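Session log. Operator J.P. requested a structure for one protein chain; no other inputs attached. Running the standard single-chain path with token output.
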Amino acid sequence: MAREISAVRLWPVGFDYAIFDFDGTLSATEALWEEVDRAFFSARGIPYTPEVHQTLATLGFSGGAAWVREAFGVRDSVEDICDEWNRMGAALYEAKATLRPGAERYLRALRAAGVPLALATTNDPRVLASMAPRIDVSGLFDAVVCGKEVARSKEHPDIYLEAARRIGAEPTRTLVFEDILAGSRSAKSAGFLVCDVDVAGAGQPKEALRGICDVWLDSWEDIKL
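Structure written below.
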């Protein structure tokens, strides 16, 4: 079970490095990707389910596109599917993407305290860039690793290990902030500490997340700086 560490114990920090997921964890953007998924499947006459959305969130772009081709017989190439998703996602992010209340304040506080920060996201650089200047991702993190830069999905710890490498972090001294079970499990398996962030309506198994994480966070605003 998760250790009984309240959110207030995240400040002052009990770790030397931090790695953050973006969608859902830091940002209120999971509904935007659901909008993309619904539009994509509707255009092809394929029924959409929440399980499909969760699978795509775990696999990332290339892995998700390959799965869609195999599972539903979509004839578009992986590259064309990814390009379509990125175009739709970038347009939505440019207009609607926001960070969760309290998230940016905490990131800036950690950096001011000298904690190196990395972003580990299955999102695409083009989509992240579309948020500027409203959300300056490059200005909030010391390193940004996108899913296309590593070989495997978040079912494996590749992206967290690469993020740690870029900020010179040791896993046992690094806290990974996540909201999905697959990512939390793989980070934990690689020796990282894990903080799971509650995302209402995201369809993730809350009890399973609580069972493997080191810290559970209901809201970024619960952290008293």
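Operator note: Confidence is low (pLDDT under 50) at residues 1-5.
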